[in-house]
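Here is one chain, start to finish.
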Amino acid sequence: MSRVKLYDTTLRDGSQGEGISYSVMDKIRIAQELDEIGIHYIEGGWPGSNPKDMEFYLKMAKKPLQNAQLVAFGSTRRAHTKASQDSNLKAILRSGAKVVTIFGKTWSLHITDVLKTTLDENLDMIKDTVSFLVDKGLTVFYDAEHFFDAYKENRVYSLKCLLTAQEAGAKAVVLCDTNGGTITSVVSGVIKEIRPQMNVLLGIHCHNDADLAVANSLAAVEAGADMVQGTINGYGERCGNADLIPIIANLKLKMGVDCVSDDKLKELTKASHFVSEISNMKQRNDQPFVGSSSFAHKGGVHINAVMKNPRTYEHIDPALVGNRRRILVSELAGKTAVLIRAKDLDFDLKKDDPNTRKILQLVQKLEHQGYHFEAAEASFELLMKRALKKYNKFFELEGFRVVIEKLSDKKITSEAIIKLKVKGVKEHTAAEGDGPVNALDNALRKALKNFYPTLSRMHLSDFKVRVLDEKAGTASRVRVLIQSQDEKDTWNTIGVSENIIEASWQALLDSVEYKLLKDNVR
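Its structure:
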């Protein structure tokens, strides 16, 4: 099958997702990462809509991409005006981008109810806008917004919109499932009908409101589309956009589509986690191909089979996409899981080694108390190294105190005071936080920052508390799970206690120590 062009819109469509807000520097870093993994077109934003996007394009002019082409986004000219006088189009020209994507209406509902104009005027808007930009020397892609809804209602008119853009000089026409509710078989059927009438690139742009965006994008390629638009990790408005991560992996590994090189494919996991970190979004453990659980095995039968032949429970070699197999340690897994994890950590353990039984019994004892190591792999690694006496502490806790104060109608304040001994030096610090755990985290980092600067590059990305025995009421034991991230990795740690502060401290301590351990800090 011929090469398919990958078009990323994380920096524009993805940024419209709830909870995401990129700075100019964030956008530059993500663009550079996308360029490195082999994306062909990177849509940076809408320069006519806000100063930040315009600043991004102007700064990117001094940081040229090595592989991708930077694309500016905009809309067709306003009704009953000239393209040359449209402020949105003028901003695109000022951005310096050589490729531009213009979205326009194809559905009469939007033309009459939103734009408040006629179907003929909408065709003129498409023609004038595309031809104006082409005359200025730009490569123009036309995004046919709400195309599948439009095609269902009026095939003749919606097709006319595409042909108008093509005749005006557009180099690509993209069919958008903007409301994200089209069934896969419909997408495939429409592409097959449209493809013979297009002599330019035919693209697909799917939203995920029916959880079909990836399937629809792949079906579109099978039916004849040769450009796929989407976002990293599926970020986007409402339920998000088509996730380019599984799209790329499926195109390359399942469909034989030459969209990226083998070397670039191995960067998928890193790129997914990198964009998650910059976006300040929790990485999905169950994200296909790149999630930490994608190749994780827990049941003893599964583990036994995978160790004999990975194909028994893995659809691909995880290394192909830069991921790795994980054997989850729990009371269900037995000695095999302990031995496999030991091997991963370069420990020479045998099945009949007393240390193997020692670690397994320790795991079983702690899980009986409420620990859950399959959800806290970093804590298990630390547990194993401590048990095997392969671990030196980075610091020693002498004590801490947490003060929570509420005065009258004022906001509750939390302060943590902590005493440590670090490399023979006593540290006594205090810090405030949004809550007691945040205050403890801030105080610990404050005490360690001069000794271990690498800690400034990590942060806590998730915090979960679960009551383990509801019948015990406020005296019940609680389990705290903390997820931490840096620019490369995500890791999970755990703490269990009748005291939520103590449980949180255990998980927090493991999180910081694991970061130092993995960075080979001395």
